[in-house]
Design brief:
Length: 364
């Protein structure tokens, strides 16, 4: 049996930003809470919002690797101002905050209580507009937040799906090269992880394959010499990766990434991608067919060539390919392994403590 679920209405294309206003009218929204990044406030599109929406409230206090405390602060504004919708305009960090806030109308408790059970009292509609091409958060049921204890933890609920996702590649034009690289390689990783995931199914494989090809063949140009066409292709790569991993989840590359972000401050996309070549080899021992497919999508002749091509991609976009480059030293091994032993049900092969020791040696 396979089950594919995607309740979000997806609007994709250049200049689709303006669709937001007709969608808000259709949903009879009177006073939305807009959660966005500071970079967006200085853009022309923010002025369009100011000129078009008679009433709205603004929340901009969201940092990368967002805190549960930021969710609570935004939820307080939602309730005090009696807003009737949430609009998230930003990268994965903003969208991850916004989707949880939309579930906190009259909630009265901290969002960390959702880690026990996501049981909102009332939800308001959530409109998601990504400004990066990588997280895919605009159409997923996941929210990755940093708790008061400093742990990055994922919340998951069907309640978090956006009502509408508007993916306008023009919103990503302002991304500087490193952000383009880190978010684009996140999309590439999500698509690879979805494709080899135990939860993969024909629907997700189709999206993952398209996404792997789009990001592999467009990312270097998007980082070094972007034009309209590569920006469109990277936005589509990100959206298609999310169409895939929203239903399959990610795998061990994501689990390990949280330790690299926590201990060395590595940005999310780079933290995920650094172990991709290693896991391609590791998972090929269990599911060779899927891993060989991935190699063929990127024009590689077998697993070793695939590993080399992905490592070369990392180097070309300025991402670290070795753990020594990010500050890892062998005495840190235990603390990295300790955070990374948790298994995702969709991992195609279980990793042992010894496997991770080997990974850390191989990638040092
Ligand atoms: P981000 O949202 O953390 O943004 C990084 C920085 O880029 C911020 O300072 C932001 O203000 C700035 N920025 C965003 N768009 C910009 C633009 N167009 N121009 C200039 N600056 C811009 O980056 P991200 O990679 O999109 O998101 C990463 C986060 O998303 C991580 O916390 C990760 O765990 C999470 N994530 C969530 C999911 C999900 O399904 N919920 C999936 C993958 C990643």
């Amino acid at each position: 049996m396979t089950k594919y679920y995607m309740p979000t209405k997806i609007i994709f294309g250049e200049k689709t930003f303006g669709e937001l206003f007709s969608e808000l009218r259709e949903a009879k929204v009177k006073k939305p809470l807009i959660i966005c990044g500071k970079h967006f406030i200085s853009s022309l599109r923010y002025r369009v919002i100011q000129d078009t929406l008679p009433f709205f409230k603004l929340f901009t206090e969201v940092q990368p690797n967002p805190l549960t405390a930021s969710v609570d602060a935004a939820a307080k504004m939602l309730n005090e101002e009696n807003c009737d919708a949430v609009i998230g305009i930003g990268g994965g960090s903003i969208l991850d905050v916004a989707k949880v806030v939309a579930c906190m109308k009259n909630y009265g408790k901290s969002c960390e209580s959702f880690y026990k059970r996501v049981s909102p009292k009332t939800t308001v509609p959530f409109f998601a507009l990504p400004t990066t091409s990588g997280s895919g958060s605009e159409i997923t049921k996941y929210s990755v937040l940093t708790t008061n204890e400093g742990m990055k933890k994922t919340l998951k609920s069907d309640k978090f799906y956006a009502k509408i996702a508007i993916v306008d590649p023009q919103l990503t034009y302002s991304m500087p090269p490193e952000l383009t690289a880190a978010t684009g390689i996140d999309a590439f990783s999500q698509a690879m992880e979805s494709y080899w995931s135990k939860g993969a199914m024909p629907e997700t494989d189709k999206w993952a394959e398209e996404s792997i090809k789009l990001s592999y063949f467009n990312l270097v140009k998007a980082v070094k010499d972007p034009d309209k066409y590569v920006r469109i292709n990277m936005s589509l790569a990100s959206l298609n990766a999310a169409r895939a991993f929203s239903n399959t989840g990610t795998t061990a590359c994501h689990t390990l990434s949280y330790a690299f972000t926590k201990h060395y401050g590595l940005v999310h996309g780079f933290a995920v991608a650094i172990t991709l070549p290693w896991f391609l080899g590791f998972y090929a021992e269990k599911n060779e067919k899927k891993c060989l497919d991935i190699c063929s999508f990127i024009g590689a002749d077998g697993i070793e060539d695939g590993k080399a091509k992905i490592t070369q991609l990392l180097q070309q976009i300025g991402a670290p390919a070795r753990l020594g480059e990010i500050g890892f030293v062998p005495p840190d091994a235990e603390k990295i392994i300790e955070m990374s032993m948790r298994h995702k049900p969709n991992n195609p092969r279980r990793h042992t403590h010894k496997d991770l020791e080997q990974l850390l040696v191989d990638l040092y």
